[in-house]
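Comment thread on ticket #2218

A.B. wrote:
> Attaching the input chain for the structure job we discussed in standup.
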Amino acid sequence: MKLLFIFLITTFISVHIYSQENNQMEKVNSIIQTVKEKFAPDKRTAVFNFEAVESENKIIIKGETNISEAYSEFTKMMNDADIKFDSKIEMLPSEKLGEKKFGVINLSVANIRSKPDHPAELATQSILGTPIKILKKGEDGYYLVQTPDNYISWLDDDGFTFMTEDELSEWISSPKVIYTKEYGFSYSEADVNSQTVSDLVAGNLLKIMGEDSDYFLVNYPDGRAAYIKKDEAKLFNDWYSALNPNGETILKTAYRLMGIPYLWGGTSTKGMDCSGFTKTVFYLNGIVLARDASQQVNTGELVDTKDGWQNLQAGDLLFFGRKADENRKERITHVAIYIGDGDFIHAAGRVKINSFNPEKTYYSDYRKSGFIRAKRILTSVGKNGIERILENSFYKGNR
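C.D. wrote:
> Ran it. Output below, let me know if you need it in another format.
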């Protein structure tokens, strides 16, 4: 009887201790989830990978984040809950990068992938002259980087030039030219028959070093020198100060891209997906948009479309996808730019025009049935995640 009593007491104590430990781990995981939902609800734009493990009766928090506020909030919540833990969290950018935690895109168009591997899905692209943040080193020459739209993915080191904070500041403050033709080349001499240095796409930024007759002499981020025809580029400050983005200029830019092939992950005049198209059009009008359609839909001013398209204006963004029902959440999968009279221009197979108007030969019942809402971007520049280029922290050099 005595042995049975001791066994029962021991079992009760063990179960009680296990229950306490289990409840504590549940609290920790709940805190992790709460902080993640507050500071990093979208993994495309923030890194927050925390994992709680138990080892030798200790709670260890492993992982990484690029959001210092998230780590501070997590620590505070753990202390408030009187939960002791050992931290093995790495703050990004990683200290292993040394001083070169910044970079500038060095190719006309750099492919940025979902994983650090050449066969991996093309997540997005970034174009020549774009400043980026480097978060950590991966495998096979890949680095986790963040672009001015805050998108985070993997870029191989052939796509950018490493820079220190001072070097990036010097690049940002240097006078530049912007390439304005849809596609072209730079040359080793002030002669189109000389050796090409690289191809170029609209929006590429290069440091101006001088002029030679009908050419600008420019430098790439890695120091390469080249010549660009003056009639294919403009001094950046002149171009930027002359911008007056409105419905007419947005459509004028969009029409220039007619027929360009659809490319999943593409954001340049070589090829683009639906949100890459809208992003490129607005960038060429001096405005930085979020990367994906499902992000762009969260910006701008809602337009009333419950009675049709009469309230829409040229340049408004139209969003399509799957409407919410009792079993599924809404899902935004496509975006287009409104033209007028029910017409819109978008990247679907190629950049083309379709219509909500069934009387038009290019009417799309598929798009009409999949339409969800419209947002007016041009009235929201400077707020709600929509910035002019030089107001964006990456282009200002604010770190």
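A.B. wrote:
> Thanks. Noting for the ticket: The chain has nine helices and 27 strands.
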